[in-house]
Design brief:
Elements lengths: L6 H11 L14 H4 L6 E5 L7 E5 L5 E5 L1 H5 L3 E2 L7 E6 L6 E6 H4 L1 E6 L7 E6 L5 E4 L5 E9 L2 E8 L6 E11 L3 E6 L7 E6 L24
Length: 224
C-alpha cells in the first residue's frame, strides 16, 4: 500500500505533543556487514557508441566500457534512459558484460516533490544537487536532508533533525521507476514497505487576468 511521503513525520510531531516520540523508521541503519559492502556501481558518461541494447560508458579515467542493457530494459530497469553525454550509474552483473540496472544521473538531479501532508496542496520533497548535496523542499516538519549518493544501485539519503542534536540518519531507497518527470522510491528497510511517488517540480504558471491596476493615487490626497 502506497503512502503519502512524510506521513510518518506528521505522526511523530503529534506524538511529541503528548510527550511521546515514535520510533524513527527513517533513521534505520543497515547492519554493518551490509552497509560496508563495496560499492559495485560503475559511473561514467554515455558515449556516442551507445545503442538501445548496449551502453557505452566513458569513465573518469577515460576507460571505455560496453555493457549490454537488453535484459535490464526488458525488466524496466533502465531508469531515465540515456543520451550521449548523460552521466550514468550502471550496476553490472557478475560477468560485468550485462547491466542489472542503469540510472541516469542527469535525470535524477533536481527538485522532486509531492503534495505536503500538512495542507495537501503545497509541494514538499527533496532536492538532489550535483556533487552529492541534498536539501529539503517545502514543509518537511523537522527533517533536513543533507546529502545523497548511489550505493549498489540504491539511492542513499542522509538526513538530520532540526532539534539541535546533530544526529544523522541514513536511509536507502530502491528506485523502482524513473522518467523525466517521475521518481518512485521504495524504502529498503525490511520492516517498512513504503513507496513514495514524486513528480518533477514545476512552478505554477503566472496567469494574466488582463486587469491593469491604477497605482496613481496622488490626486486622491490633494486637499486643495
Amino acid at each position: 500500500m502506497k503512502k503519502i511521503l512524510f506521513a510518518m513525520t506528521a505522526l511523530t510531531m503529534m506524538m511529541t505533543a503528548c510527550n511521546m516520540r515514535a520510533p524513527l523508521k527513517v533513521g534505520y541503519e543497515e547492519p554493518a556487514d551490509l552497509s560496508e559492502l563495496r560499492d559495485s556501481t560503475i559511473y561514467g558518461f554515455c558515449g556516442s557508441g551507445s545503442t538501445p541494447t548496449e551502453l557505452q560508458l566513458v569513465t573518469s579515467t577515460e576507460d571505455t566500457i560496453y555493457i549490454n542493457v537488453e535484459e535490464a530494459r526488458r525488466k524496466g530497469r533502465v531508469m531515465g534512459g540515456y543520451n550521449r553525454g548523460d552521466e550514468i550509474y550502471a550496476l553490472p552483473a557478475e560477468d560485468h558484460a550485462q547491466a542489472l540496472l542503469t540510472i541516469n544521473k542527469s535525470s535524477l538531479l533536481g527538485e522532486w516533490v509531492m503534495p505536503s501532508p500538512y495542507d495537501g496542496s503545497t509541494p514538499a520533497g527533496v532536492i538532489l544537487k550535483d556533487g552529492g548535496e541534498a536539501e529539503s523542499f517545502g514543509q518537511q516538519g523537522d527533517i533536513i536532508y543533507k546529502s545523497w549518493r548511489i550505493l549498489n544501485g540504491n539511492l542513499q539519503l542522509v538526513e538530520t533533525r532540526d532539534d539541535g542534536t546533530d544526529i544523522y540518519y541514513t536511509q536507502n531507497y530502491e528506485i523502482t521507476r524513473m522518467t523525466s518527470d517521475s521518481l518512485y522510491l521504495k524504502n529498503t528497510n525490511p520492516d517498512d514497505d513504503e513507496t513514495f511517488e514524486y513528480g518533477r517540480y514545476k512552478p505554477e504558471p503566472q496567469v494574466d487576468l488582463g486587469i491593469e491596476l491604477d497605482y496613481d493615487y496622488e490626486e486622491d490626497y490633494n486637499l486643495f
